[in-house]
Structures are given as C-alpha cells and as structure tokens.
Amino acid sequence: MKIVYLPCIYRNTDIQKPDYLATVDVNPQSPNFCKVIHRLPMPNLKDELHHSGWNACSSCYDDPSKRRNRLILPSLISSRIYVVDVGTDPRAPRLHKVHLIEPIDLFWKCGLANPHTSHCLGSGQIMISTMGDPSGNGKGGFVLLDGETFEVIGNWEQPGEAAPFGYDFWYQPRHNVMISTEWGAPKALGNGFNPADVRAGHYGQRLHVWDWTTHKRIQILDLGEEGAIPLEIRFLHNPAAAEGFVGCALQSTVFRFYKTPKGNWAAEKVIHIPGKKVKGWALPEMPGLITDILISLDDRFLYFSNWLHGDIRQYDITDRRNPRMVGQVFLAGSILKDGPVKVLEDKELDSQPAPRIIKGKRVQGGPQMLQLSLDGKRLYVTTSLYSAWDKQFYPDLVKEGSVMMQIDVDTDKGGLKLNENFLVDFGAEPDGPALAHELRYPGGDCTSDIWL
C-alpha cells in the first residue's frame, strides 16, 4: 500500500472552495512520504463529501471483468454522487466521464436524499444508504446504481419499507441478512448538535434487519437510550459469521449483534465508556462519543475512536461477548490538561491527558475516522467528524485544519503507539485548512470489502 484517498471538506469553513479528493503518499521510501500528491476538486461548492465506496470489491470475486477502478463519492448534504476514475492513473484520480449523479435523480426516482455509505454488490450493482427524504426528514432507504453506467436504477428496499432514519449498513449473504443503523434527521443535525433534538425524537437508536433476498425489513432491534445514535456497523469479516459490532455514539457503548438459535437477531451491550463529569464544557457530563469502529481482517481486534475524550482503543474480541481492552492511545480531544475543560470526576484516568504535538503541529479535534492496514499493523486516523459538528465542538480544528496520523499496532499481544514520524497536515493545504475525513486504500481495506 503506497497511497490512500481522503475526501477533504470546505463546507462550514470560511473558505469558499469545493470539497476535493486528496491522494496521500504513505510509502516510507518515497520522497513524497506524508504529502498530498494530488487534489481533485469537485465541480460544486458545499457538498460535504463524507464516506466513499468502490464500484467493485470482494463481492465481485467471480466476475473477471470487474476492476476496482471507480471510487463512488456521495455528498452527505448536497445529495450529489460523484464517480471518480482511479484506474487510469491511481496517483492522479480524475472525474469519470459519467461523473455526477444529480440530487434530482435521487429525489424523483427514489424519494431519498443525503446518501451515506456505498457498497458494491455481488450483482455488479452499487448500493448507497441514505439518511433523509428530499425535505430533510429522516428516511433510511437505499439507492441502487448500475455498476457500468452509474445511472440510478431505483430503490433497493420494497415500497413503504424504508426505515425512519438511516446511516450505515453491512450485508452477510450466507445468512440472507443486511443490518442498517440510524444517525438522525438531516435537518436536525445539518447545522450542529442540539441535545433537545434527541429528546424530540430526531435521532435514532435502532438497528434494522433486512431480508437480503426479498429486500423487506424483517426485524427492528431497539437498543434503548444506551444505544442512542448507532453509527458504524461491522459484521465479522468471516462470511460465515452471524455476528458483529456496532458503535453507539451518544452513550459511548458498543453492542454485539448476533443471530439467535431461533434464527432471529438480537443485540447486547458489551462495552461502555463512562462519561466524565466536567466544568467549562457545554454539558456537566462529557461522553466519549464513539464515532468510528472497525474490525481487523482476522476478526481478532476491534478498534474505535472516542472523538470527545480523545482516545483510540483496541479490544481483543476473540471472546466475542467479552471484549478485553489491550491498547489505548490519546491523540487530543476535549479534556486536555491545558484546555478550558476541567474534569471533576473520572472513572478511568488519574489525570487529564497532555496535548499531542507531532512534528511541531498541535493536533486539534479528536481521533475520528479509522482505517487499518491489511496486515493489521498500521492504524491510520483523521480528526474531522462532520463539518457542522467540527465547527461546534472544535472551532480550532476548522481554523487550523485536520491531520492524518499513524498508530503502530502490536498484533501479537495488543498495544497502540503513536508514530511520531508520520503526519499529514491538512492545515497547510494550498487553498487553506481543510477537514480530511474517511480513508480508502486502492486495493480495498477493512471497511470496504465484504466476502461472499
């Protein structure tokens, strides 16, 4: 692995420039190591590029004509979907000639908006989950794209079957199942987070279980308040496995979901990060805010980021019901000892962590998006969550730009250590500080590939 792709966002900053796809050199032998070597700007402003996906992945293993040569870039706020050619010149991506799916295609053909997660299917089609309807209300449906022409085919879900909220999804065909999660209504979260919106029911707390063959919603798992705002969902990579994990942001919990002996699905809380009593912050108690999770390719370790507390954790999940923390590293966050927040009561730490300074740059924000190398030894992390929430919780992150860091992983006994020689500083971008988000490897990675 020599390069990675990251969407970089200018929405909600003072810079009136389009979001762009950055190509970063991560080859230690390269003279451009840790540098952005190419930038592909989008043709519009304020898209809010967020997560990306491939036109082909392991699900297309039996089709020799399929190549992982197009990156699908949905825009969370504008509802545009871009198609990027990364095959012609992987180090200098360009917009594919059929490069843009306009919001009106999603609105009129599917009644959906705010696309989020993109996965390729074994059929050759591409499926993208959505968070809303064209008016900004919550609506968890799925858009199907043709894998060759990239035209909108229509909805994956049956008429009337869309969930009240949407966000992420993962499918496991051997068990004829897909499970999707809920963030919240786009018009509630679009300009920031208000706890009153949670009480008003504008955020989700359920998992939706879908029949993979009939496209019908067959079960709803209500995780309760402890499972409020379930974001990233990951089945184990083993295609025969009938279980996985989901990170729930608001109460900082991880739930294990699994198939029961009766053949239906259930969920149980297996990790909880206690909140910290604080003063000098918006609320008297600060949650960790688990935002991203991933599972190593060998299904041995679970990783997640606490965006507010500022740490990344590694858990041994060989005992699936009893994850055991084996690694932790602090990388900034909201409880730094030289910051405005004073921790009054902490069930985990004896003292507030020190700020992180790498190559002279102070890390702003907190660890957020994660991506793990295929051998499990390098964990890459960026610090931007979503521009409106960045602006609200970490205004200095918006002013100074996000960073990409590398954590060295002990894959034997467990353990995490910051690599002090690695830093990609998106505060030094030519058009001004940018907010870099999700990472993708050209050859596939721990969150893009689903095996059949």
UniProtKB/TrEMBL annotation:
Subcellular compartments: Nucleus; Cytoplasm, Cytosol; Membrane
Main localization (coarse): nucleus
Uppermost EC category: oxidoreductase
GO-annotated molecular function: methanethiol oxidase activity; selenium binding
Alphabetized UniProt keyword annotations: Acetylation, Cytoplasm, Membrane, Nucleus, Oxidoreductase, Protein transport, Selenium, Transport
GO BP annotation list: protein transport
Record's bilayer topology term: Peripheral membrane protein
Pathway: Organosulfur degradation
The keyword Mitochondrion appears for this protein: no
Coiled-coil stretches noted in the UniProt entry, renumbered to this chain: none
Superkingdom to which the source organism belongs: Eukaryota
E.C. numbers: 1.8.3.4
Keyword tRNA processing found: no
GO cellular component: cytosol; membrane; nucleus
Entries under Pfam families matching the protein: SBP56
Catalytic activity: methanethiol + O2 + H2O = hydrogen sulfide + formaldehyde + H2O2 + H(+)
Function as written in the Swiss-Prot or TrEMBL entry: Catalyzes the oxidation of methanethiol, an organosulfur compound known to be produced in substantial amounts by gut bacteria. Selenium-binding protein which may be involved in the sensing of reactive xenobiotics in the cytoplasm. May be involved in intra-Golgi protein transport.
Protein family per UniProt: Belongs to the selenium-binding protein family.
Protein name: Methanethiol oxidase
Organism: Cyprinus carpio (Common carp)
Source lineage: Eukaryota, Metazoa, Chordata, Craniata, Vertebrata
